Amino acid sequence: MATKESLILKINNGDNKVFRELYGNDPDVLKRNSKRYTDLLKSFTAEFGEKDCEFFTSPGRTEIGGNHTDHNYGRVLAGAVNLDNVCVASINNTNTIRIISEGYPRFEVELSRLKPDNHEQYTSAALVRGICSRLTELGYNIGGFDACIDGGVPKGSGLSSSASFEVLIGAIFSQLFNNGSIDPIENAIIGQYSENNYFGKPCGLMDQTACAMGGLITIDFKDPSKPIVKKVNFDFVATGFSLVITDTGGNHADLNDEYASLPTDMKAVARELGSKVLREVTLDQVVEIAPKIRSRVGDRAILRAIHFQGDNQRVVDQVDSLERNDFKAFLGMVVDSGFSSYMYNQNIYPVNNVKEQGVSLALALSELVLKGEGAWRVHGGGFAGTIQAFVPKKLLDKYVSTLEHVYGKGSCHILFIRHQGAGKVDL
Fold it and tell me: N or C end of the chain: smaller count of CB under 10 Å?
């Protein structure tokens, strides 16, 4: 733990090695994050008083390959990005967790009550309570702490703000109460448990794992209790392409049923083949049984099963192309994945609101600018929110101006893959 004064000195107006690793070398970005950290520290002191504390960070994540494959025990390719949630936290020697997050009301979690509370569903308090419950079941220490959080991962951006928040809380518990002993993958699994059982969203494990681990990784969820995580050695910066995430402004608030339909449809097809998930069957088996099951599961479910099989294999091929430094082949597979999501997975717009197709329009505009030069696809959950593009330097200004002409200034985020996952900021 450190004093407020010593932390401000170490921040040094953003001129330090840690900040450059987290946020890049742009002086304006470093200065902006320096102010962000010092403002957060001031807010913490104003709310909880002068006491020793620590900074924590948890990145957002970008899904690069494997769209909606994780919940059926498939493979994904993902990376941690330089937009992050930052937190100041300190043990408070009580049985209560007190959290302030910018833009949200303060909330408290009493540690004597760790069972799910239906009134908390879909709230941050539910996530924290679920994490505490699971940590206790696994034999880890928990305790009360005070925290101020600056949410630098935009909500609804497709960069997994909720997963980033979950593993941030896990990292705080690991550092403050367990001597840093909670493994990043276990932290991710605990976060997923909380989101599934306390928050009320049937998510997979990709988002939490990517945020917890950091860097560019491929994850194989064949055994979801023991996902195989592999670092992928590739320098995206050296390609001259920028990774651009565009927020189309769609609202995720009423899409829980849409998201839930994806694993439900896929697993319905798997059950027809005597399996639990699609990872346990083959594409040939799905095609073979399709005529017999159309009336039982619906054509959409079969199409989604075809998407799963294609994108699951595509992750293997994408990793292979990156490791061979064949970036052109990789870009082609990004586009193929995007078309598969659009045509087969059908997670581009909600079926009950066909007039609002922000993601569809963004993909069309991307193709107009980038066809033959870059790559574009839906990003993350889909239905609303964001798209992803790999944009060559010569087209970056044109691409951003075209998308922001429709979605507004600041809707495009130019990102890079960062190394550090969720954990303490060692200034």
Answer: N
